[in-house]
Design brief:
This protein is mostly helical. Helices cover 78% and strands 0% of the residues. It contains 7 helices and no strands. Helix 1 packs antiparallel against helix 4 and helix 5 packs antiparallel against helix 6. It starts with a helix and ends in a 5-residue tail after the last helix. 32% of the residues are buried.
């Protein structure tokens, strides 16, 4: 993995913390994260495109209750990392969507593990309240580290897969993926219409 991709994965893991764990400045929204990743890789336009498409695709899914939505950060970082390696955005985007869904399962597993850990830490904080800042810092760092490992491995696997498969993809499949990619914003807008429509009843 190149240095720029390693930095990209580090930045993505940091921005993913903004989703629920820390900051919450909305920089983890795809429409913001995409251009940031694009700027790091030297193609802001590609970052804006992927960010807008991912935003429209996931905008109807809210992290309410026990729902863990697909990661908009992962949906942006995978296609842009692959694009920097010469893979077309229309292939990378769908790999990014699959990765975003996989991350939601990974995050659910992390939360279950963390819950067991928090029961232990709660007792420790009860005995020594001054440890709370250090415990929060360790919890955030562990979340960051696990996310970085997940994103790095996923990016590497997607890159290896595409390097093996890409030369054998027929022209018809390129056309089909390109067409599906251009349909993504329309699917997202169609999902938004009921939410934005004025309720007259």
């Amino acid at each position: 993995m190149t240095l720029s991709l390693l930095l990209l994965c580090l930045l993505a893991a940091l921005i993913e913390l903004d989703t629920t764990y820390a900051f919450q400045f909305l920089i983890s929204r795809p429409i913001i994260a995409g251009p940031i990743f694009g700027a790091l890789l030297g193609d802001v336009a590609a970052g804006v495109q992927v960010g807008v498409f991912a935003e429209l695709l996931f905008t109807d899914i809210s992290p309410l209750g026990g729902i863990i939505p697909p990661s908009g950060v992962v949906a942006c970082v995978i296609p842009l990392a692959l694009y920097s390696l010469g893979i077309e955005l229309y292939f990378g985007f769908f790999l990014g969507v699959v990765g975003a869904v996989l991350y939601s399962f990974f995050d659910a597993l992390l939360r279950k593990t963390r819950f067991r850990w928090l029961i232990f830490l709660e007792k420790r904080i009860g005995k020594k309240p001054t440890d709370i800042k250090r415990i929060i810092a360790v919890a955030l760092f562990s979340s960051f580290l696990m996310t970085f490992i997940f994103i790095s491995i996923l990016t590497w696997c997607c890159a290896r897969l595409m390097f093996v498969v890409y030369p054998y993809i027929p022209a018809k499949m390129h056309f089909a993926f390109r067409l599906a990619y251009t349909a993504v914003p329309w699917i997202g807008l169609a999902a938004l219409i009921p939410a934005l429509r004025l309720k007259t009843r």
